[in-house]
Amino acid sequence: MARQHGQDLVGEVLAVLAGPEGRSDPYPHYERLRGLGPAALGPDGTLVATGYRVCAALLRDHRLGKTPERLLSGAGYADWLDRPSLRMMFTSMLMVNPPAHTRLRRLVSGAFTPRRVAALRPAVERRVAELCEQVAGQTDFVSTFAFPLPVAVIGEMLGVPAADRPMFQSLVRDWSMVLEVLSPLAVDQADAAAVQIRDYLDALAAQRRAHPKDDLISALVGGADDGDRLNDEELATTAALLLAAGFETTTGLLANGLLALLTYPDQARRLRERPELAQSAVDEMLRYDSPAQMVVSRGAAADLHVADLTLVPGQRIIALVGAANRDPEMFSEPDRLRLDRTEAAPLSFGGGIHYCLGAPLAHLEAEIAFPALLSRFTHLDLAGTPVRRDGSVLRGCSALPVTAQWGCDRERACGTVSARARFGRRLLRRAALQLPVSQHDTYQQAEQSRSGIICTDDAGGLLRCSAQSDLREHVLRDGREPPAVL
User: Which of 80, 276, 432, 450 has the greatest number of C-beta atoms within 10 Å?
Assistant: First the structure.
């Protein structure tokens, strides 16, 4: 009777997680499962793991393989190799086993090097600074920051021209929905998106074969030193997977992370005052509200014993990494955000041979983004109710309305604003009121530009003033300080 109750509870919770209530907040439902132990069986024999140690063991055991064909055939897609979206997703590096996975991972890792990731830091910092300006005021954080940043970064890395990058938001979301939903409508939409993505990437790869550049597509086209290289289908599939991972996972990390900081203003204040905590802070955001909530489509080819569990061939396995990241046996106060936490590493990027290849890049973007946002804006608040994206595998927001204001953080910030910073802000206010900038006889005009106020003197000298600059480099042509009062 107790076993039947446990199986019924697992089935009930999995159904809730797939619906609006589970998307809104899955964590209370994970706790219901945790009451059954670190792993439990569902009515159909599915093994559902919530414990950290069990999930980690399942993710890292190389004897467990990916079994997408079983999932797809069971959902009515015996012809899945003929469906563009299913073929592109489920033959990718994410879903194949050794030796095919070993070969693909080696070829991609040879191009996706730490050096290439590290070289992106200046570009990430520049893009973050630009996007901070878009966030100012009241806006949707997802559309103005959380999506544009990773799309710019992975687009830059792959070599996708800037003008083409925005179109991939809807295309990648429609395609990646096959990880969540396999209804005929969802797969039809995913097929249409997959065809567009594949055709675009095929054309881009052809351009790079003819005219290589210093980007990832060119490196993938070039192949490895031993002469092995991706064929056309493998190259398009791999590039599409990198796009999807770059968009969806990092967008989720940024949106979930900011929402967590807004929920715990004391932790936001800590990171603002101690930006050197950025690395551990990002790890904690990944733990607290992971952009990847579960890993599915793994199974045993023979009877196996993993973490005191007996697995049988054909058995479906679900590792709820979102639950594992809040396991009270591994984390003190697991439901609280603590940016200086030094406990176990989160399982958000998976483990073993399928550990996320782009994890260092996502981490880099978040490490730069959060301190910059908190430094740029002294007041960050929710401006409405967050809207959670559809699906239970990936967790994020489709909309996150925020209000962002820059200004004095009382004693600390106001006491250190330089005279030149005050000068710049007065210029901004005067220009907005269309008043004379100054009685100083060398200034003739002030005009607003996209990044601030441009002040031009009668000799043609140029002074750019913007609210985010303290104007240290900007002095008058003859070296005098700006006027103290305007």
Answer: 80
User: How far, in Å, are 17, 228, 386 from residue 293 at the CA level?
Assistant: 10, 35, 18
Q: Please, which residues have CB within 8 angstroms of residue 444's CB and are 6 or more apart in sequence?
A: 456, 457, 458
The closest of 213, 192, 210 to 85, measured between CA atoms, is 192
Q: Are 344 and 286 in contact (CB under 8 A)?
A: no
Sign, CA dihedral 124-195-294-61, equals negative
d(CA 221, CA 212) in angstroms, rounded, equals 9
Across the strands, what pairs with 311? 304
Both ends of the chain: CA-CA distance in Å? 81
Integer Cα distance of 250 and 87 in angstroms: 24
Alpha-carbon distance of 386 to 341, in angstroms, equals 26
Contacts of residue 128, defined as CB under 8 A and 6 or more positions apart, other chains included, come to 149, 368, 369, 372
Whether the pTM exceeds 0.85: the reply is no
Residues 189-230: tens digit of each pLDDT: 999 999 999 999 999 999 999 999 999 999 999 877 678 899
Six-digit token string for 106: 């080696």
pLDDT of 2 reads 56
pLDDT, mean of residues 128-156: 95
Helical residues (DSSP H) of 330-464, grouped into ranges: 359-376, 410-414, 419-433
